[in-house]
Design goal:
The complex is a heterodimer of chains A (about 180) and B (about 325).
Chain A (H helix, E strand, L loop, with lengths): L12 E3 L6 E6 L31 E4 L6 E3 L4 E3 L2 E3 L1 H6 L12 E3 L1 H11 L7 H15 L12 H30 L3
Antiparallel strand pairs in A: 1-2, 3-4, 5-6
Helix pairs in contact in A: 2-3, 2-4, 3-4
Chain B lengths: L9 E8 L4 E6 L3 E7 L3 E8 L5 E6 L7 H16 L7 H22 L2 E6 L4 E3 L6 H19 L6 H6 L21 E3 L4 H19 L6 H26 L5 H29 L8 H5 L2 H26 L3 E3 L1
Helix pairs in contact in B: 1-2, 5-6, 5-9, 6-7, 7-9
The chains are: A alpha+beta (about 180), B alpha+beta (about 325).
Chain lengths: ~180, ~325
């Protein structure tokens, strides 16, 4: 999508010539960099090392994890290392790196929401509180958010769930003991 | 392209706090991490500093109701209730405060809002967490030096050079043809579960209107059965939306209905508790029916159910679309 023809040279604010809105545009040298060369793999000549997955293509590197030869098309760059697609897909070695994560499930948030949301219809806390405790225990050591590093949500979920379970226990004990004691 | 496994991120200015969706930006060692929060899940996208071609902040109205704004509204409500009978001038002050807050929100939303977009050679993405102009300024002031540190500065007559270049991925006429079938998801406006849900809303409204003055235990049980149908179909709606079958509108309607049911349930228990001296789980319907407060509550509930049902019907009748 091309940039609209704004008055880029006008300074900090560029006014859109179409709608007149004020815009701040920051352009960086990557904009003027030549387009990247196409990742087309070259054909392997006789005697040349060939790609493991594409035997007709010339190998350009070896996978840092498994050592397989990879062509230009198959090479996956990660910092100073090159991986083959299989290792990336299998999550081998440094491919497990958190840097490749594109999504994470937030078990701590789920564990916290369960006992809190069930308060809207409090009889559901009878199920939600133990469920939250089990979830917190089972997923305590799972990776959290990439950007949040503490487990306070788990701790809060456990405390709230325990409180709800205690209240239920007290209520049941009170009702049962009252029934056995009788009206007199 | 990568950094160590224990990448430490620093929070960048701007955060979008919604009830279901949120967004934030974080600075890594060599990239900006855009985090899209979906309440129980986070999705990440990385923009490497060396790849960023441009950042554009466009001024435009953004009427976003954040959880913080809703928190302020709840606080106002609490203060208004607490101050109701304390002083004769309290209602006027609270009204002025509410008007002031509303006008401030409208002013900021209209005149000091923006959208921010980031371009690389292969992508162009909105940054939803940057939606106020002052946040955009702070964001640029933090990010710009880091990008310049990596890429250097533009030299020469770059404005002229830009005339021949375009930011972001090139749009090719052949692009639609290469979309894989798996990427195309039919987003339906109705399913059997949503139909049952909307139907139960109308039934609930009708039941409450018709039995306003002669509530019996049988009607109470029918009402409970309807509530279970609504909750069950709402859960199915959540799952269907999660799987990309159903549109978001129906899910929002289900959430609104569940919240309404929870609120009405508690108010009903309070009314029954006040009338009967305790808080029974199943209060006597004949006693409840005689209470004026309970009558008003049921009228309001039936009215809101009817409105939600109409909204649901409108959502179900909207034309279906294909989204990529």
């Amino acid at each position: 999508m091309p940039l609209p023809t704004w008055e880029l040279a006008a300074g900090d604010v560029a006014v859109c010539t179409s709608c007149g809105s004020a815009n701040r545009v920051r352009v960086f040298p990557a904009m003027l960099a030549p387009p990247p060369a196409s990742a087309r793999a070259e054909v392997a000549l006789d005697g040349e090392a060939a790609c493991y997955d594409h035997p007709s293509k010339r190998a350009v590197a070896a996978c840092h994890q498994c050592g397989r030869f990879v062509c230009q098309l198959c090479s996956v760059e990660s910092g100073s290392e090159i991986w083959c697609p299989s290792c990336v897909a299998a999550g081998a070695g440094r491919a497990k790196s958190a840097n490749l994560d594109t999504a994470r499930t937030l078990y701590d948030s789920t564990a916290l929401i369960l006992p809190l949301a069930s308060l809207l219809l409090y009889p559901f806390t009878l199920i939600a509180a133990p469920a939250s405790l089990v979830l917190a225990a089972m997923t305590w050591s799972r990776p959290l958010s990439l950007v949040r590093r503490n487990r306070w949500r788990f701790v809060a979920a456990i405390l709230i769930s325990l409180t709800e379970i205690c209240l239920w226990t007290l209520g049941i004990v009170y009702l049962v003991s009252g029934r056995f004691r009788g009206p007199g | 392209m990568n950094s160590p496994t224990s990448e430490r991120y620093r929070k960048l200015p701007g955060q979008r706090r919604g009830f279901l969706h949120g967004g934030s930006l974080w600075m890594g060692s060599d990239h900006i991490l855009a985090v899209k929060s979906l309440r129980f899940r986070e999705e990440y996208k990385r923009f490497y500093l060396r790849d960023i071609q441009s950042i554009i902040v466009a001024n435009r109205p953004r009427f976003h109701l954040s959880t913080r704004a809703c928190g302020i509204a709840v606080l106002w409500l609490a203060v208004a209730i607490a101050a109701r009978n304390r002083a004769p001038w309290a209602p006027a002050v609270m009204f002025l405060a509410a008007a002031g807050l509303a006008v401030s929100w409208l002013y900021v939303s209209y005149f000091h809002s923006c959208s921010c977009r980031i371009y690389t050679a292969v992508s162009r993405d909105d940054l939803p967490s940057i939606y106020r102009t002052w946040t955009a300024r702070k964001f640029l002031s933090e990010v710009e030096p880091r990008i310049r540190q990596v890429q250097g500065v533009l030299q020469g007559n770059w404005v002229e050079a830009l005339e021949e270049r375009a930011a972001g991925p090139a749009i090719s006429p052949a692009s639609p043809a290469i979309i894989r079938p798996a990427q195309v998801t039919a987003t339906r406006s109705r399913t059997p579960a949503s139909d049952i849900f909307v139907g139960s809303l109308f039934a609930d409204a009708a039941l409450n209107f018709l039995t306003l003055h002669f509530t019996t235990r049988t009607f109470e049980w029918i009402s409970y059965a309807l509530a279970f149908v609504e909750i069950g179909s709402a859960v199915v709606i959540f799952l269907q939306h999660r799987r990309g079958i159903l549109r978001a509108g129906m899910q929002r309607l289900a959430i609104a209905t569940l919240i309404l049911m929870g609120i009405v349930y508690y108010i009903r228990q309070i009314i029954a508790g006040v009338a009967m001296g305790n808080r029974p789980v199943l209060p006597d319907p004949s006693v409840l029916a005689a209470l004026p407060n309970y009558l008003v509550l049921r009228q309001v509930y039936a009215g809101v159910c009817l409105i939600l049902g109409l909204v649901g019907a409108a959502l179900a009748l909207m034309p279906e679309s294909d989204t990529v």
